[in-house]
Amino acid sequence: MINTKASKRYASALFDISLEKGNLDVILKDFQLIKDTIGISREFENVLLSPIINYSKKNAIFLEIFGDKLDKLTYEFMKLIISKKRDAMTSQIIEEFIVLYNQHNNLIPVEIITAVELVDESKNSINSKISTYLNKTIIPNFKVNKNLKGGIKIQVDDWVFDASIKSKLEGIRESLISN
């Protein structure tokens, strides 16, 4: 089980240091690279999760993969994580850092699901309305789900606004069954 308290502490410590040094954006970019690498390389993820591979071997693999692509602070932080045997929490630490970064910059990720691909004008209009409603800058993630039949479904954290035709039809169906 991933230790979320520890991952929050590590992410918070790195966030505070990078905020102090003024390189939050650099660390975020580095973490995005690490996250993407974990996502596309099952082998790299297995290295991080393996308790059998020792610190020096993991560090050498990390250096070989990322070389000089990472900021010194990111690299030193990852060396620390690996040496403290917390490397299995890398993905969780990255997610916690992203949450802190988004909070600091008044950003919020929003998933917007529609039945068809939207044109840019519609996307911009939706982004503007959601941003105004939430009083935050949104990070939109548009998805298409043909099962919706029409309408829109918006998810912000654990709050869902469902104005899809599928949802409305299910509501009508439920009311007909219960009557």
Given this structure, which CATH class of the largest domain is correct? Mainly Alpha
- Beta content comes to 15-25%
CATH architecture of the largest domain: Orthogonal Bundle
Number of helices: 8
CATH topology of the largest domain: Peroxidase, domain 1
Question: Structural class, judged by helices and strands?
Answer: alpha+beta
In what order do the strands lie side by side in the largest sheet? 2-1-3-4
Order of helices and strands: HHHHHHEHEEEH
Structure description:
The chain contains eight helices and four strands, in the order ααααααβαβββα. The chain has helices at 4-21, 24-40, 42-49, 55-66, 72-83, 90-104, 120-134, 165-178; strands spanning 107-114, 137-144, 151-156, 159-164. Helices cover 62% and strands 16% of the residues. The chain folds into two domains: 4-103, Orthogonal Bundle (Peroxidase, domain 1); 107-178, no CATH class. The protein starts with a helix and ends with a helix. The protein is elongated, with a radius of gyration of 21 Å. The longest helix has 18 residues, at 4-21. α2 (24-40) packs across α3 (42-49). The protein has a four-stranded mixed sheet with strand order 2-1-3-4. With 179 residues, it is an alpha+beta fold.
